[in-house]
Amino acid sequence: MIETLGVDQTAQATPQKRCDWAQSDPLERTYHDEEWGAPKHGSQALFEMLSLEIFQSGLSWQLVLRRREALRKAFANFDIQTVAGYDQADVDRLVQNADIIRNLAKIKATINNARVIADMFPGEEFDRYCWSFTGGKTINHDYLTILTTPRYDHLAEIVSTDMKGIGLKFVGPVTAQSFIQSVGIVNDHMHGCYLNAFQE
Predict the structure, then answer these.
(1) Which of 29, 98, 138, 185 could form a disulfide with 180 if both were Cys (CB 3.0 to 4.6 A apart)?
(2) Is 31 one of the catalytic residues?
(3) Residue 189 marked ligand-binding
(4) pLDDT of residue 147
(5) Average pLDDT over residues 113-122
(6) Cα(105)–Cα(14) distance, integer angstroms
(7) DSSP for the chain?
(8) In the prediction, which pLDDT does 199 show?
C-alpha cells in the first residue's frame, strides 16, 4: 500500500473553475488564466491591448487571439513611436495583409491612437494616464454570471469620454469596458472563478 501522507488525490485532480467564456478554447483559457483581469503596466503593453480590443469590436475575442501574433508583426510589436510614423503606404500594406483583421477604420484608428499617445504621453505617461481613472488600483467586481455583467459601466463611460476627448478613435464605452477588463483596471472574473477577487 502506497503512503499518500494525507494528500487528497481527488482534490488535486479537480480542474480550476473558470469564467464561462474560457472553458473550451485553449487560447482563450490561457489568456484568461495568464492575462485577463491581471494588472498590466507599460505604455506599449497597454497600447497593444487597447488596439486589440479595437480590432475585436464586433468580432470574437477568439479570432483576435488567433491573429494576435500577426497583428504584432504588422504593427511592429505595437511600438508606439513606430506605429505613429506609419503613412499611407503602410495603411495600404496593412489592408492587403490577409493574416490580420483587414478593417480600414480600425487600422487607421490604431495609427491615429499611436500618434496621439506619442504626442501626449511620452515614456510611461500613457500607463499613468490609463491607471489614473482608478488611482492606480484595481476595482474588483463579483458578478454572478456573464448575463449579469453590464456591457459597460459608469467607469467605462468616463474612460471612453476622456479618451475621445484627447483624440483617440474607436474607443466607445463597450471597447473601453473591454480594455479596462483586459488590463486589470477592473477585475471582472465571474463569481466562482478561481481568479475572482472575492474567492475564499
Answers:
(1) 185
(2) yes
(3) yes
(4) 80
(5) 98
(6) 45
(7) ----TT--HHHHHSPPP--GGGSS-HHHHHHHHHTTTS----HHHHHHHHHHHHHHTTS-HHHHHHHHHHHHHHTGGG-HHHHHT--HHHHHHHHT-TTS---HHHHHHHHHHHHHHHHH-TTTHHHHHHHHTTTT-PEE---SSGGGS-SS-HHHHHHHHHHHHTT--S--HHHHHHHHHHTTSEE-PPTT-TT-TT--
(8) 78
Does pLDDT of 161 surpass 60? Answer: yes
Q: Which of 28, 31, 86, 131 is an active site residue?
A: 31
Find out whether 19 is annotated in a ligand binding site.
Answer: yes
* Per-residue pLDDT band at 15 (split at 50, 70, 90): low
As a dihedral over the C-alpha atoms of residue 51, residue 41, residue 196, residue 69, rounded to 10 degrees, the angle is: 40
The pTM (predicted TM-score) of the whole model is 0.90
| Catalytic residue status for 61 | yes
Q: State the pLDDT confidence band at 16, using cuts at 50, 70 and 90.
A: confident
Q: Taking the mean position of all CA atoms in its chain, how far away is CA 33?
A: 13
**Which candidate in 28, 48, 61, 131 is catalytic?**
61
Q: Residues 36, 48, 53, 152: which is the catalytic one? A: 53
Bridge partners of 187, per DSSP, are: 140
